[in-house]
Amino acid sequence: MKQLDRRADGVKAQVSLAGGETLSIEADRVILAVGIEGNTEGLGLEGMAVEVDRTHVVTNEWMETGEPGVYAVGDLAGPPWLAHKATHEGILVAERIAGAPGAHPLNKNRIPGCTYCRPQVASVGLTEAAARAEGYALKVGRFPFVGNGKAIALGESDGLVKTIFDAATGELLGAHLIGAEVTELIQGFVIAMNLETTEAELMQTVFAHPTLSEMMHESVLEAWERAIHI
Predict the structure, then answer these.
(1) CA 154 to chain centre
(2) What's the pLDDT tens digit per position in 68-90?
(3) Is 217 one of the catalytic residues?
(4) What is the residue extent of each domain of the chain?
(5) Per annotation, catalytic residue among 104, 209, 217, 229
(6) What is the pLDDT of residue 126?
(7) How far apart are CA 111 and CA 100, in angstroms?
């Protein structure tokens, strides 16, 4: 955000784009989210081996702090600041303390992020830019909502499903969606990543018709230039 100009009938926002250009947007209101500050005061952490970084408690993949027997979960343990992440961490810690069989460490790369705006936004895993920065050779698939019969029938033809794969192994590295009900669709990709599914299994999966989920299939197919409806 470069500049905000308040008017009697709304707000005019000046947004800086990656290429150096400025985009002007007129809106009724602007909602600004600036993150979350951890409330670590008054917890008695002084003198303990609990590390605090920018107001958040530092933990490992088991939510353990530097102090034996002390765990931290939820917003206090840092991003992503999501209710479903916090719930999962709480269960993980309880299972860890109880020595429950099957307890597993947290992989933050497989936590879905959902924004409940219109259109909805959902993502999991690496972005294309982040994957390239890590040195992956990529296969990237994109499929538009306008190519899906269910989306057209719903009057929701604006949107996109994007999938990012490791070209060498077929591993699903990330998925990013924008459009109607994508906060429901994203879980399919989260499950696929958790099961270490490759493009081959996703291509061979039968998706029901007519559904919005067919776009997930088409996006995978498009990454290998095999899409059906574009």
Answers:
(1) 25
(2) 999 999 999 999 999 999 999 99
(3) no
(4) 1-32, 52-106, 110-223
(5) 209
(6) 98
(7) 22
